[in-house]
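User: Can you help me understand a structure? I only have the sequence.
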Amino acid sequence: MPQRNVQDLMTNEVVTVRPHTTFKEIVELFHRNDITAAPVVDRQNRPLGLVSEADLLRKEAALPDSEGHQPRAWMHPREHRRAEAETAEGLMSSPAVTARPEWTVVETARAMERSKVKRLPVVDADGQLVGIVSRRDLLDLFLRHDSEIAEEITDEVLGRTLLLAPDAVRVTVYEGVVTLTGTVEQKSLIPIIERMCRSVDGVVSVHQTLKYSLDDSHLQPAPPPSVHGVFTSGAPHN
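Assistant: Let's start by predicting it. Here is the structure, written out as tokens:
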């Protein structure tokens, strides 16, 4: 089944900054391009880090409040040094957490969750920047129309991949939630069908009340034959 990957979802034209780009230049760049973050790249266009609105706002947070209280009591020394920085090199979050164009949506979402980031610069095999992918890009998959999802499940999953009869399983989709009803030959097919439907782009969840003609759950694959004391080739044992 064709699934969209990072290359299909990423923004190709990426606004970048260099390590020496000043604080004010970054603010102006964000405003002019209506963005909230930008990769910091070296001369070879390789990401060194990412500078975001949160990094810039740290400078505001590091200022004394109206009563003259300093933030040192709650701000980590490293964060305070970043707040005092004047260029992207000191302001950015580093090292850069990146994605690859061939990554699946699942791989990308997991990387974002692990690193607690909202976007990932995308790099090629040489580490050069080729795009950027955000949480919103991944969530756009859930904008697929219900009829488009139902058609893919019926034609691609059930028909071409699992070779089920056209009237075996009925598929309905509402707000991205898939409901499967009908009867299949073997019970063991049901979790496979459910898992494959979940992997279709835009599916929120899968509900099924599928029935089966044969309960094959008790059938276990035969263990491989033991080779102990048995010739496995025509060569004699010494």
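Now, to help you interpret it: The chain has a mean pLDDT of 87. Residues 144-214 form a domain with the Histidine-containing Protein; Chain: A; fold (CATH 3.30.1340.30). Let me know which part you'd like to focus on.
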